[in-house]
Target: Elongation factor P
Amino acid sequence: MISVNDFKTGLTVQVDNDIFTVLDFQHVKPGKGAAFVRSKLKNLRNGNVVEKTFRAGETIGRAQIENRAVQYLYNSGSEYTFMDNETFDQFNLDKKQLEWEINFLKENMTVNITSYQGEILGIQMPNSVDLKVTETEPGVKGNTAQGATKNATVETGLTVQVPLFINEGDVLLIDTREGKYISRA
Model:
């Protein structure tokens, strides 16, 4: 059990039989009445973000989340197959569980799997990945003052905004949290 007064960003807690991670919290001490903690929590099972208010000093369950390294092998339709790097066990995740992560997954890539008491909640991507440009228009110099960009499609099918000097075949460093171009790799 943990007191809501000890909330930290990134902490995983169990509330109403669901697993949440704390995205944001604020301790509020009104002039009249009891203090409380206003929090923004992300449900790790379905991805929904909810706002909850707790009385100051209230205790809730702490969820022990397990992270372990796995290797992405391949996909067949809506099933994505992974292999545990320690036990070599293979398991499948549905496309619904990996909606955002699919944009960055390449075969043989190592990612971290997040689980709670044997239930797989999702995967954690590295902060950035190297992806090869498969399609982009040629850069055309024009009367641009600064920061001109164009669309580029990378090997996973993701389309990102890139500078005009990027060509097909270039390998780019892409931020997996926002899906944005960082630099050439």
User: Anything to note?
Assistant: Residues 128-184 form a domain with the OB fold (Dihydrolipoamide Acetyltransferase, E2P) fold (CATH 2.40.50.140). The longest strand covers residues 18-28. The chain has a mean pLDDT of 88.
